[in-house]
């Protein structure tokens, strides 16, 4: 590192090494890497729980885990995947890429950035550690509906506090991201010239700041109902369990877009790069993303079509939900138009991106089916819903994360990953993903409820296919881990511009990106 | 690692015959009430529309994926915007959605209209059973899963599911007359449960302390099975619902039987309704 | 100042974040212990958590103040602080929105519904209205009157907003005495508010468990009071820093941030006064 010119970088000079470097770091790249590793570990932890679930569901009857443990696995699987795997992964990408993409030297608040990360491990400890306390983990489903969650034991309080801590982390992280984007762009980078990933994260960060406090409020009320005698969710005192659902889903629905908008951003980089053609409809992408975010605040009722809302409520939420198909469609069409008449190659990131577009759309369509109130009556809380959200979450969020990881690994490590193994990983993942989750549509249509450890014999075949698929899917992820480690260890040297079609400031700095970049703002044309 | 892969592949292959045996229940079970009829139709309509969109949109994408490859010598064009086409592909989905929303609205209004019922049943959910009170006929009973526990098993002692209706059978079925509009007043005593019988087009949470209503009308005699649809604790998977629709005469006979049974049991069997705050 | 002109300030590695995480972890463990394992372990963990948190706050803010005074923050950093404080306050607004949402829901939905015709089956004779302790609890209670202490408190907070603005003007015009008097007055008003609030709690003829009225009342006013306490502490720190001459007419964002926070607390109170006490 040259340290010759004048600067206000206290960070310079001292480069702590070893553990201290990571505990005390103020470097966005270190923090990004920690987020990404944390996410990968949690993905494996949550995936392990999913595999136990699938093993139990391999045949009717109880074999591996008793019903209450099953419920606990379902609950913590979801919380770990959502708060431990998907969200931190996107924050990891944000940390690495946003300063590089907007030409900033670091995140706006480098110390607070580190705090956001270091809040995650204690929260994860509380969440996963709750399996060890008397009574086991929370078993009410990740939605924590009272009164069931009020019946739970110590673990429910641990889960609530974990949610508080993760919420604090997300809010600080989002404030950091918003500030970095609004205040630290290179001269000349107007809002409408920002890279798409930056745009999607800007909007996501707003969603987070708006809804994480609401979740905090909801679980706080749960805590006081549990221990301090309040009656928010108890009819006897004039409260209502439905009230929790309303508050929870006011958070919950924007939350699902929090998990998909950054994915849209990543895909909007990968496709142009490998189509060697600029993103089609940049402006409409920005407007579509904003519309999705705005609409996401008024559709929460589609999770509650069976609570007995008045007809007008059902209709309002149905119409509003259906509307989201329009901006989402715009995004899908824009990606396809970007590919159209391009000059495409299919390296691993592009494979994941193409699979993303098609499989996410399947998940979107099943979402649309669920949005039709009467149809939701017959599908609510069945495996159809489970199929829907794994299509949007796994072949949506997780595929984009994997594609993004392959895409930026050269920039992060300075080496090209093993392309052949990457492709093997992709194909195994894509195929076994569909084996796992496609049959769940049929299970749901046939009426198999979710969150049950045991089922009627007519559901056996599809469950077996799904379980076999899940184990294949799980094992395929070991390849991913191997490819990442191999790429860090060595490999073909990556150039600054690692992909022929790549555009953007991040590709102007060497690979691996030096510890400090853009200490003086770059010129952006 | 190769070995485990081979093992998994082996398992996968050996489970293939299952496919041939499967009785392919790949759709919503046959509807048996006016609402579930409409639901079935709505689902089919939307499914076909989505499939059609999927084929068209991804037809285009996969054509492009095959035709516009660098390896085929494709040279990248430079366009990156076209207002006309962007407006078109915003408006067309709007129209399609309107086309879906119209019939769905009709069904929502019909579904929500529980007025003028022929009879009313109050359903109370407990952890983990159902209680039914026929408000017009004075019949009242509990309904519990009747599959023997040893068939279900546990982690210590694996069960052998042998009953034909394993997990979907109860000791006391809900008997209703065919062709009558039956209003359900659904509530719960402890936590939230869901009264879910897909073939009758009902899925309604029972919420402790609140009465929510729903209705159905069985088109023809038959037995319709469903399950609790909202997680309610460790036995959530074990609180089925079985509705038997009978002719008016058979129903009357059943009511008489129930009343006789009730009168006999009256003296010693006084199940008190635990109050909903006691928790 | 000169070197920090067009480059951004990135702080050196710091131990404070990890210390802060440790504090929150200890607090969480303390909370869980207090609720389940008894007072002693709970209070020990909570106390150590608070101790570590205090250490972290002093250390971290100490660093920031030091950096600020030694001129390491340029105009761009100042702008960052502004964005961040604004969005932080927005997140606080959303936190209160959850509780206001609960209040509106209870008043407009759950209590009226509990008194409707269907629900007479469960809660015979319940007459909805507001304030309500719900259909089951029957302890007689007297709701809070708006036009006693709460009205006085409204006046106090509104006045404190004025005195704070007055102090801000003094700061910008470099009038030290007026600045110190203004700040001291604001703090005194805040403390008086807290004192009255505590008095009011002491005299309340109902409790946290008086149905949804007690719950919404105490959580809303409680969290507000907690925010006033934080705000007052921050004002005291700012007053001390004013005394030390940390702020110049041009550079005093810390002052403004606390002022924004104070006004936010003020506005929340107006909402409370209108919807919790008055209407
Ligand atoms: C990343 C996460 C994610 C995303 C993006 C979505 C996207 C959508 N979701 Fe999903 N959803 C979840 C995660 C997500 N969901 C989760 C986790 C649950 C379960 C929670 C729980 O209970 O545990 C859930 C549950 C859920 C329900 C409740 C089901 C139930 O419990 O009964 C509903 C109902 O309306 C729904 C609808 C939708 C819709 C309409 C979209 C739309 O945004 C989809 C829009 C996309 C498209 C439609 C495809 C592309 C469009 C085109 C190609 C244009 C042309 C199309 C037409 C004109 C039709 N979702
Ligand atoms: C982003 C979110 C996300 C992701 C990625 C996943 C991934 C997976 N999910 Fe999950 N899931 C949810 C979010 C997610 N899920 C949510 C929100 C719910 C609802 C919960 C609720 O009802 O409350 C849910 C519920 C849910 C259910 C329904 C449970 C029920 O209703 O009872 C099932 C059942 O099949 C399931 C399966 C899987 C599988 C097989 C995967 C696979 O993709 C996982 C792939 C496997 C791995 C990645 C494991 C790899 C690890 C190894 C191979 C190593 C093994 C390690 C050791 C032995 C040390 N999930
Ligand atoms: Cu009762 Cu689930
Ligand atoms: Cu939703």
What does this structure look like?
The complex is a heterotrimer of chains A (525), B (279) and C (279). Chain A is built from 17 helices and no strands. Chain A has 525 residues and is mainly α. Mean pLDDT of chain A is 94; it is low at 1-9. Chain B has 2 domains: 34-69 and 81-112, no CATH class; 119-272, Immunoglobulin-like (Sandwich), CATH 2.60.40. Chain B contains 6 helices and 10 strands. Chain B has a 5-stranded mixed sheet. A 5-stranded mixed sheet of chain B has the order 4-10-9-6-7. Chain B starts with a helix and ends in a 13-residue tail after the last helix. By secondary structure, chain C is an all-alpha fold. Chain C has 2 domains: 1-73, Helix Hairpins; 74-278, Four Helix Bundle (Hemerythrin (Met), subunit A) (Up-down Bundle). Chain C is built from 7 helices and no strands. Chain C has helices at 16-36, 39-69, 75-114, 149-172, 176-203, 211-243, 253-278. In chain C, helix 4 (149-172) runs antiparallel to helix 5. Chain C is globular, with a radius of gyration of 23 Å. The chains are: A mainly alpha (525), B alpha+beta (279), C mainly alpha (279). At the A-B interface, helix 3, helix 5, helix 10, helix 11 and helix 12 of A face helix 1, helix 2, helix 3, helix 4 and strand 7 of B. Bound molecules: heme-A (2 copies), dinuclear copper ion and copper (II) ion. One heme-A (HEA) sits between chains A (143, 256, 259-260, 302-303, 321, 324-325, 328-329, 332, 361, 364-365, 367-368, 370-371, 376, 380-381, 385, 388-389, 392-393, 396-397) and B (50, 53, 57, 93, 96-97).
């Amino acid at each position: 590192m040259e340290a010759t010119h004048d600067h206000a970088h206290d960070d310079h000079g001292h480069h702590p090494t070893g553990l201290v470097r990571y505990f005390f770091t103020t470097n966005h790249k270190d923090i990004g890497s920690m987020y990404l590793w944390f996410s990968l570990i949690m993905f494996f932890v949550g995936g392990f729980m999913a595999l136990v679930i699938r093993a139990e569901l391999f045949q009717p009857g109880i074999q591996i885990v008793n019903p209450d443990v099953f419920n606990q696995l379902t609950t913590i699987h979801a919380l770990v995947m959502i708060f431990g795997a998907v969200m931190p992964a996107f924050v990891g990408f944000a940390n690495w890429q946003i300063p590089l993409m907007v030409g900033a030297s670091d995140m706006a608040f480098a110390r607070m950035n580190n705090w956001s990360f270091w809040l995650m491990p204690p929260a994860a400890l509380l969440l996963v550690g709750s399996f060890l306390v008397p009574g086991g983990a929370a078993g009410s489903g990740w939605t924590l509906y009272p009164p069931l969650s009020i019946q739970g034991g110590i673990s429910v309080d641990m889960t609530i506090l974990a949610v508080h801590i993760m919420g604090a982390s997300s809010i600080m992280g989002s404030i950091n991201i918003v500030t970095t984007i609004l205040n630290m762009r290179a001269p000349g980078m107007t809002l409408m010239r920002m890279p798409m990933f930056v745009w999607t994260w800007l909007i996501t960060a707003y969603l987070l700041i708006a809804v994480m406090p609401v979740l905090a409020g909801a679980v706080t009320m749960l805590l006081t109902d549990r221990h301090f005698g309040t009656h928010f969710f108890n009819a006897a005192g004039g409260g209502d369990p439905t009230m929790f659902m309303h508050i929870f889903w006011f958070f919950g629905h924007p939350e699902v877009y929090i998990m998909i908008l950054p994915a849209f951003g990543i895909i909007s980089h990968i496709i142009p790069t490998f189509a060697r053609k600029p993103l089609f409809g940049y402006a409409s992408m920005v407007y579509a993303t904003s519309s999705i975010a705005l609409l996401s605040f008024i559709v929460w009722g589609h999770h509650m079509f069976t609570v007995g809302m008045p007809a007008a409520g059902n209709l309002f939420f149905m119409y509003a939900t259906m509307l989201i198909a329009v901006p989402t469609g715009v995004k899908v069409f824009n990606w396809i138009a970007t590919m159209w008449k391009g000059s495409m190659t299919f390296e691993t990131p592009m494979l994941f991106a193409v699979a993303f577009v098609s499989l996410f759309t399947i998940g979107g369509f099943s979402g649309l089916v669920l949005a039709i109130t009467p149809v939701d009556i017959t599908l609510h809380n069945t495996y159809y819903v489970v199929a829907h959200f794994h299509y949007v979450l796994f072949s949506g969020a997780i595929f984009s994360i994997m594609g993004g990881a392959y895409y930026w690994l050269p920039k992060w490590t300075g080496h090209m990953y093993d392309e052949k193994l990457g492709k093997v990983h992709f194909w195994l993942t894509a195929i076994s993903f569909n084996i796992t989750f496609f049959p769940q549509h049929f299970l749901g249509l046939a009426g198999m409820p979710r969150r049950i450890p045991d089922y009627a014999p007519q559901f056996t075949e599809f469950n077996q296919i799904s379980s076999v698929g899940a184990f294949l899917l799980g094992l395929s992820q070991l390849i991913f881990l191997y490819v990442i480690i191999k790429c860090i260890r060595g490999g073909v040297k990556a150039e600054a511009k690692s992909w022929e079609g790549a555009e953007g400031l991040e590709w102007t700095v060497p690979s691996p990106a030096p510890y400090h970049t853009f200490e003086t703002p770059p010129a952006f044309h | 690692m190769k070995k485990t892969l081979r093992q998994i592949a082996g398992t996968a292959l050996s489970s293939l015959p299952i496919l041939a045996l499967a009785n392919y229940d790949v759709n919503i079970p046959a509807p048996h009430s006016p609402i579930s009829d409409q639901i079935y139709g709505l689902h089919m309509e939307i499914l076909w529309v989505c499939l059609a969109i999927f084929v068209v949109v991804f037809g285009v994408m996969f054509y492009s994926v095959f035709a516009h490859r660098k390896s085929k010598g494709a040279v990248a064009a430079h366009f990156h915007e076209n207002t006309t086409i962007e407006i078109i592909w915003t408006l067309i989905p709007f129209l399609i959605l309107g086309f879906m929303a119209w019939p769905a609205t009709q069904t929502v209004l019909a579904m929500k209209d529980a007025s003028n019922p022929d009879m009313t049943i109050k359903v109370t959910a407990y952890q983990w059973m159902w209680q039914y009170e026929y408000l017009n006929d004075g019949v009242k009973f509990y309904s519990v899963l009747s599959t023997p526990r040893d068939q279900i098993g546990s982690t210590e002692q694996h069960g052998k599911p042998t009953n034909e209706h394993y997990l979907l059978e109860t000791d006391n079925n809900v008997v209703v007359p065919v062709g009558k509009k039956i209003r359900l007043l659904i509530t719960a005593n402890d936590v939230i449960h869901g009264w879910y019988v897909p073939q009758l087009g009902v899925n309604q949470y029972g919420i402790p302390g609140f009465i929510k209503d729903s209705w159905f009308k069985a088109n023809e005699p038959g037995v319709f099975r469903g399950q609790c649809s909202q997680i309610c604790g460790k036995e959530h998977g074990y609180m089925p619902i079985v509705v038997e629709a009978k002719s008016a005469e058979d129903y009357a006979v059943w009511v008489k039987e129930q009343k006789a049974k009730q009168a006999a049991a009256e003296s010693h069997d006084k199940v008190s309704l635990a109050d909903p705050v006691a928790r | 100042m000169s070197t920090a002109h067009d480059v951004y300030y990135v702080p050196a590695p710091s131990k404070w974040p990890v210390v802060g995480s440790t504090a929150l972890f200890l607090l969480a463990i303390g909370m869980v212990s207090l609720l389940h394992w008894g007072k002693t372990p709970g209070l020990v963990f909570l106390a150590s958590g608070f101790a570590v948190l205090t250490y972290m706050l002093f250390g971290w803010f100490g660093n920031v103040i030091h950096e600020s005074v030694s001129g390491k923050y340029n105009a761009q950093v100042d702008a960052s602080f502004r964005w961040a404080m604004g969005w932080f306050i927005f997140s606080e607004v959303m936190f209160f929105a959850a509780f206001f949402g609960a209040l509106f829901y209870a008043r407009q939905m759950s209590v009226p519904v509990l008194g409707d015709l269907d629900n007479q089956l469960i809660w015979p004779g319940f007459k909805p209205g507001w304030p309500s302790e719900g259909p089951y609890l029957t302890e007689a209670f007297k709701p809070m009157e708006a036009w006693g202490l709460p009205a006085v408190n409204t006046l106090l907070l509104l006045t404190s907003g004025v005195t704070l603005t007055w102090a801000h003007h003094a700061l910008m015009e470099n009038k030290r005495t007026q600045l110190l008097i203004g700040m001291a007055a604001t703090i005194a008003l805040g403390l008086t508010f807290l004192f009255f609030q505590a008095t009011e709690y002491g005299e309340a003829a109902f409790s946290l468990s008086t149905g949804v009225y007690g719950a919404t009342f105490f959580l809303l006013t409680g969290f507000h009071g907690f925010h006033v306490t934080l705000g007052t502490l921050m004002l005291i720190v700012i007053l001390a820093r004013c005394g030390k001459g940390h702020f110049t007419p041009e550079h005093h964002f810390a002052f403004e941030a606390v002022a924004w926070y104070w006004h936010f607390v003020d506005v929340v109170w107006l909402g409370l006064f209108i919807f919790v006490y008055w209407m």
